[in-house]
Amino acid sequence: MENFYLIIVVVLFALAISDLIVGVSNDAVNFLNSAFGSKAAPRWAILAIASLGVLVGATFSSGMMEVARKGIFHPDQFYFAEIMIIFIAVMLTDIILLDFYNTVGLPTSTTVSIVFELLGAAVAVAVVKIMNSSDQTMLDLGSYINSAKALAIITGILLSVVIAFFSGALVQYVSRLIFTYKFEKTFKYFGALFGGFAITAITYFILIKGAKGSSFITKETLSWIKENTLTIILVCFVGWTVVLQALVWFVRLNILKVIVLVGTFALAMAFAGNDLVNFIGVPLAGFKSFQAFIANPGTDAYGMTMEILNDKVKTETYLLIIAGLIMTITLWFSKKARTVTETEIGLSNQNEGEEKFGSSFFARLLVRRSLSANSSLKSILPVKFQEGIQKRFAKPSAPAGIDKKDVPAFDMIRASVNLTVASILISIGTSLKLPLSTTYVTFMVAMGSSLSDRAWDRDSAVYRITGVLTVIGGWFFTAFFAFTAAFIFASLINWLGGYAIIGLLVVAVAFVVRSHVFHKRKSKGQDSAEEIDEEDASIISKGEILEQLTHAVSVVTTKIPKVYAKIVNGLAFEERGTLKESLKKVRKLDKEAKSLKDQVPFVVQKLSEDSITTGPFYVQLLDYLREIAHSINFIAEPAFDYVDNNHKSLVPEQINELNIIQTKLEDFFKTINRLLNDNNYDLNQIEKAFGKQKDLLSSLSKFRKEQIKRIKAEKVGTRNSVLYLGIINETKNLVLYSGNLLKASRDFTTTNGVIDLTNDDL
């Protein structure tokens, strides 16, 4: 029996290593975003500083380990075997849940996940104990669960969301009023005070408050710190202020960079001190339980209660350092961490760009109400006061000639506020032994500072709010899924024993491997050439503007006839699967075409003065690409709906006509594609292409008349007619826009003169 539980302990530690990896991939967003978003330093420097913070913070997390042992349930009410069931169920659930969130790129809370997993697994085991007892009912569930502590933790997490948002918004608003976006001049005089305050606050809450949980600081040292707290604060403030001001005078030090980098170190340290329990607290508690079990040989696993977990136990420093090293390695090499980081940076970006999230009803309603409230407030405040505020928040123009990807998402004033406020709030939670969610705190601080900094303007507010709501909704899903999955897993293990553990391990490994493959493909943007065909190729590519356009046009003119042929074939043989696959590809094309068109303002800004006359052609070319994508979408969607709803088959004459159209369309697009790829815009070749276009348009007109004859003869029904005439009409649009695409591509690559837009339409 001891060997069985020894294997479980080994499995727990193996799962702990995996949990550290997926957990850090999720939580790296918490302390890297401000430095990455503001581009305060090269990536390697930011990672090096964060790594040092993680290693130091890991040794400060010993005091937090009590949460996993007795924070959620009463261990003295459970036997050793039951405790091990709870712990193994929690670790299996945690890995699957966090890896899922990392894969889709949403930051979630490792703290919330571990709390609700412990709660779910403990409730499952407690329910089994009550069901097997003759003198207990479900009303006795409270004797097993530490409801008061669990409620305090959950309440603290929820309150931290509100407090973090308003704290970030308030501090950022005041900071921007003082320093504005043109802060260089003001910082010469007040920057040292700002830096001294920020670093002193970080020093106090991280080094002093966090020292309580350190695994190596003695009681005497803690007592001395407590007695001399005020002195330490004053010395730190004066010392940092003087040092920073001297460095500004003599070496022109950028104080904001120092604050951001020190804040990154501090927040990484706070993360490790507060969140390490989420990854290794359960395995360590399992190990302590196993040590107690083997210390009493001959004891039945279902006869030994675990009062020992109520005792205060110091975690060995070497275990904490090993955990810190694993987190540090993950920090450097995890690609999923970058995916999660992009989500928060995108939502707090003060620059225009493509939004990751769409619009929602609640977001639109909230923006309308906010605009209405803002108008009411403006009617009350004096005009001069409003002008003064507006002047303080006026954003400078982006420097000319800088690539969009090199422009910081926000400046270092906001980055400093994000890091300082989040560090303070998390450290307060750590000092009070409350496992606050570092993800919730840092995310909501960043969102609050973004709002007050006017990064959410009328062009982006609905999308940003939708994004925030999506992330917050995901947090509630975290709690629900963590509780439910842990409850189910613990129940299965309780009933099936080792067989359930093996089965769930296989499921967890399969899930992680599958999500890794999915993320790898997603990060590439497309599969390898051996795995996908031309229909799945993306129209978006990297390179110069001309190269991007050439690629987009080439892919579209290759993809359209292939998809069109599948749609015709799917209608002819009523193949729902073929039509569904075609619709999926068409929607992807439409989305990519929209993405290209949304980038028009940024690309036009990059066009040189010598190339300014090509700008309208560039815009036109993307317009035609977008319209082509619209047209094929308006063909694919009705075709799929028609077959999906089991309407009557097309008559043989219609199928024959569509086959003729498809053949001519393929020939027409092959001609266009050849001209574009060869960069051959010879007049005779152009006329040949438009001759095929004219023939195709003539066939479409003829078949429309044939359909009208069929309607009059009552050979076809209303739904058939709506579908067929719609396909004919959208095919005509497709052909016309394709011809215009050819001309616009020719003009974009060859012209240097004035554009006559009236000659672009047939």
TrEMBL record:
Chain segments annotated as transmembrane: 5-24, 44-67, 79-98, 110-130, 151-175, 187-208, 229-249, 255-272, 317-334, 468-490, 496-513
InterPro entries in alphabetical order: Phos_transporter
Keywords: Membrane, Phosphate transport, Transmembrane, Transmembrane helix, Transport
GO cellular component: membrane
A matching Pfam family: PHO4
GO biological process: phosphate ion transmembrane transport
Protein name: Phosphate transporter
Gene source species: Labilibaculum manganireducens
